[in-house]
Fold:
Amino acid sequence: MTGHPKAAVCVLGTGLIGGSVLRAAAAAGYEAWGYNRSAAGSKSARADGFDVTSDVEAVLRRAAERDAIIVIGVPMPALDTVLSDVKSFAPDCVLTDVVSVKAPVAEAVHRHELGAHFVGGHPMAGTSESGWAASAPDLFEDAAWALSVDAGVRAEPWTRVARLALDCGAVVVPVLSDEHDRAVARISHLPHVLAEALAIQGAAGGNLALGLAAGSFRDGTRVAATAPELVRAICEPNAAALLEVLQDTLRVLGAARDTLRDSGDIADLTAAGHSARVDYDDNQRWAITGIRPGDHDWLDQLADAGRRGGVLKTLD
Amino acid sequence: MTGHPKAAVCVLGTGLIGGSVLRAAAAAGYEAWGYNRSAAGSKSARADGFDVTSDVEAVLRRAAERDAIIVIGVPMPALDTVLSDVKSFAPDCVLTDVVSVKAPVAEAVHRHELGAHFVGGHPMAGTSESGWAASAPDLFEDAAWALSVDAGVRAEPWTRVARLALDCGAVVVPVLSDEHDRAVARISHLPHVLAEALAIQGAAGGNLALGLAAGSFRDGTRVAATAPELVRAICEPNAAALLEVLQDTLRVLGAARDTLRDSGDIADLTAAGHSARVDYDDNQRWAITGIRPGDHDWLDQLADAGRRGGVLKTLD
Structure:
């Protein structure tokens, strides 16, 4: 809870992530409402007791009136339209987003001259499901929620958005947009690409292979169940970073292929892969303390702490 | 239950899979005992109330006496030693194995002149854990258990081993050894290779990337937590089939890299990957009926049914 009884949140796009923000914020005591382009989507949310409509102007006028934090939860291809609406009806609200890739969103926000109150965000949570029906108030429980500390970000909107993320149950990872995008290419976009490739190889083995498939195939292809247009909307705006990591993956797999062919072993790959997975299992979040938004150099200090694995667990 | 009160099972190698066979067989009413090379391994099993020792001769002499089904559960590198022991002390017992790759095991069995009573097997179950401590009596519940229908396999041992698999809670997938090995390269060995590569790319992103990693990375790298020597013991005996599927994976990923670089999209990859994952989700096991081991052409008929996704759910 925030201790800010008047805090209000307006969510634009109530799919899996945006819908979960709406639910989590409402559960944390925020006045929360939302917009969804599809009437069917709005209706499902209303049927669950949430204040969601397809009238973007009304939703945004209310945001301006109530000084709400606006959370953009639409997929990347719909971003420009929604930013135009924000510019028209609620240009002075604190603005954040949950649209995965950060540098292209920040660019678009600045193109729409909405940078002054903007703090890019990315909660690291999801399932292979999508839409309001898949949203849940506890989706962000203990999740990492990346928040941009790019040059020019201001302390007051940053603090308000960070508080929202914490109130949704997450911990806050302060990060520069371009470092975020390179990191998620590794741990979110590459997993999608490899899952698609693995699914293709399994299905190419026909009923026999699919019938023999067990846990390793099921888990390794889980995110290939995500709607392909959604995977594209997540990965393609991060093409440059994904390209770099995919190229390096081809190098690693090509080397494994060569040693398997030439000496019949995959010793280097398994040693490096196991050690990397141990790094992941051992990776500990440590609590950033003593850096206050607005202090001298706070953006750089937070970026440095986030880079070293630090997270904000409270604001004070 | 089998209705064969005298059925006996002797498990050689009581790690994750062999130990689980021992537990499942005992739970199903079989007289079951085992051998484990390490005294510590035997001791843990005995502490759990199971009859496991490190005296392979005694264990195998008892198998000969009790006409037990011998189940080989040692990793591939230990196979030759164990087959020598079987040849010395219990050459006439029905013999099966749970050693993943099938053609190399069958070759070794025939080299030791133990082919007459042999039926190669592979239960499709496991975790990233290993050893007796990870074994469980319900590991095979509803799992696919591949059983070889290679030319020369005889009906009586096949029926006995199939009954054991069913009694352990699995369904039986009849399959030719080389078709099995090509299929598991796709759905079991390639997942290991891709998980290792993904883990490497995540860890290369340092604390920031590992701290942002969520479900897709966790699931995609799960099997990279398996001990690297075990991954090698599983994958390397199937080098030829794995090489072929890895080569094709490089082709698929290389094509994705090219379109991402040249046109900024991964449309072909996501469409094909999603469709493949849907094939997997939709894949239904259907029950093979009306083919009796020993009937004219039964091996070919079972191989054909298994190839088309059929499984044996009962024997009658």
Notes: Chain B touches chain A through 101 residues (CB under 8 Å). Residues 70 and 304 of chain B are 27 Å apart (CA to CA). The longest helix of chain B spans residues 177-203.
